[in-house]
Amino acid sequence: MRALILAAGLGSRMRPLSNYLPKPLFPFANTPLLDYHIKLLKDQGIDELAINLHHLPDKIKEHLGDGSQFGVKLHYSYEPELLGTAGGIRQMADLLPRDTLVVLNSDMLTDIDLNSVYEFHRRHRALATMALNPDKLPDAGRGVALDEQYRIKQIAGRPAAVAHGLGQLDFIGIHIIEPQVIDYIPGGRPCCINREIYPPLIEQGKRICGYPIEKGFWRHVGTLDSYLEAHRDFLDGNLLKLKPGGGGGGGNAHFFTQAKIIPPVLIGDNCHIAAQAVIGPYAVLGNGCIVAEQAVVEHSVLWDRVSVGEGTKLNKCVVGHKTTINPSQQLTDQLIAS
Length: 338
What we know:
Blueprint: E1 2-6, E2 27-28, E3 31-32, H1 33-43, E4 48-53, H2 57-64, E5 73-78, H3 84-93, E6 101-105, E7 108-110, H4 114-123, E8 128-133, E9 143-146, E10 152-155, E11 168-177, H5 179-182, H6 193-203, E12 208-212, E13 218-220, H7 224-235, E14 254-255, E15 260-261, E16 265-267, E17 272-273, E18 278-279, E19 283-285, E20 290-291, E21 296-298, E22 300-302, E23 307-308, E24 313-319, E25 324-325, E26 330-336
Parallel strand pairs: 1-4, 1-6, 4-5, 8-12, 14-17, 15-18, 16-19, 17-20, 18-21, 19-22, 20-23, 21-24, 22-24, 23-25, 24-26
Antiparallel strand pairs: 2-3, 6-11, 7-13, 8-11, 9-10, 9-11
């Protein structure tokens, strides 16, 4: 089995941060999201994968290189114009040997056992399998209805004629697909796999299945609220399998004795916390951050080398790399970039 990571999106819901950093490189607990995905795949025996690119592609290529630092073989698929999920999958699949594929959305975090999804997929002789969260009501566009044999009968309202009484489960952004699915994807135009490929296959009686995950964590991180909620889960210790790879140990951090740290927090290396500053609860500071006197950072995430001015209060904010926030500001529910 090989893997595809969908990473070409614009990240429009995370602007202005995504204007200069592609969302797949957003830090989570001071480690880029893509690092978690590649580590998950490698730990479960998948060492060859492709990633599609569109927005700020050179930044992703510069960070990941050829994949050797992660112990994987990496291929890039550049899209001058966005091709949608199915179009992106088709173009990436052409770079790999014809094989069963696991497809991951890049704007989520998970620690689920992909091999369990694959075994389910094989056992049910599925053409494609979608991983589903049985414990959460689906967001718009992600609802999936199953029958008693785990065959999908409807995705996001398509096809329209579906028997009543089927529950709706939430698609978490992970598929297992057989190479034959690629043959149904048209070339040369954008195409959505959930709306344009799976529904007609279901109507034709093809075996498209859904796997309700039984254990493991999944969280979408493509909005301000979901990004902060995922960090809250991490700080509460609910994501023990996700181990940050960069910073976060507070090495060489300088805390004045009058500074107040309210757990849980994660503080990166080489930070400077001034007297009477308050960090936490639920604060994450990247490497090299400076928090001035009487400033407050709570329920917020600061990326690397952020400077918070004297007397400023941040609540439920995400602040991008190398951003300076002026003194005496009161900022809530904001994405902030320099």
